[in-house]
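Workshop exercise sheet. Pairs work together: one partner reads the sequence aloud, the other fills in the structure field after running the prediction. Swap roles for the next sheet.
Pair: D.N. / O.F.
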Amino acid sequence: MTTRTPHIAFFSGDVTRSGGTENVSILIANALVQRHEYEISFVSLFEEASEPFFRIDGAIARYTVYDKPTHGIQHYFDTVGRLRKLVESRHIDVLVDIDGILDMYSLPLKHRTGVKVISWEHFNYHQNPSVPYRKLTRRWAAHKADAIVTLTEADRKLYEENAHPKCPVIAIPNPMQRITPESVYDATSKTIISSGRLTYQKGFDMLVDVAAQVLPQHPDWQWLILGEGEDRPMLEEKIARAGIGGQLILKGRVDDMDAYYRSAAMFVMTSRFEGLPMVLLEAKAYKLPIVSFDCETGPSEIIREKINGDLIPEGDLGSMAESIGSLIENTDRRRSYSVMARKDTDYFSKEVIVDLWISVLGSDV
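Structure field:
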């Protein structure tokens, strides 16, 4: 009798997007499929782009619940029904919901299909971006999911203290990629970079206010924002009003992130909240000095204060501007931060993290 290879499906809103959630999910899926222990696929509610922004291993299949973008709670029962048919027809054993809000579609399938559900928290327990009923899905997952994966130990404790889960809650950080060829820091660079979706969460509106304080004082510097999103019109207007359009540039969705990281002087993050931000791990991998708001979870587990970066009290625009200005004017400090950028990075090793995922999946398939 032949034993069927367990089928693990990563369930996404749209895996073709360019966000950190999609990035890390694809990294983990690509690594798992190379172990040849599982059949791996992605299931998206829909796909807006013909090809994913991040490379997906050719051995990984992609499926969609809808053929075209479909939004709204009014489609709830139709979505659950379509997802059930997909789970049954593709013999999916485990759904890894890469956004906890997707638990609302996958948890109802457990009784009818026997599929196991792992809820992967990419924000943190206190944040409910865009959808107010995310609080309800977190409580539902705490009682009905087979496991919850958080990105930080701090968030694992928040779940334990607030949701009283009946399933295991495991902290598994995002992996830091290995850069080849190894990055060489360019201390002569006069370019600041930031990246992420242009959304409220990422705080690019605050970034414009900070840039308006910093850039006029340093006219030979530029600041590039890499990413696209719904806040672009508002940001364009703010940049124009501040009169810094020649220095603060919205680059949109770029294909060659590597080139931008290699040519940057520093990385800045102004997020209002995060889980464990991939962009900071990428900046560390490229040996960049980092300045970041110290939002509730994430940055403080990546940055060693005054050793390889600066942690700024959340929302303190003046202190953020002062820190960036100080780094601009102190080349030796930037070099020192770069040298120490990869300190304490074993915890973020891809090999270690994939082993942790295999341990979780092994207990659930």
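Discussion prompt: The domain at 191-346 is CATH 3.40.50.2000 (Rossmann fold). What would you look at next?
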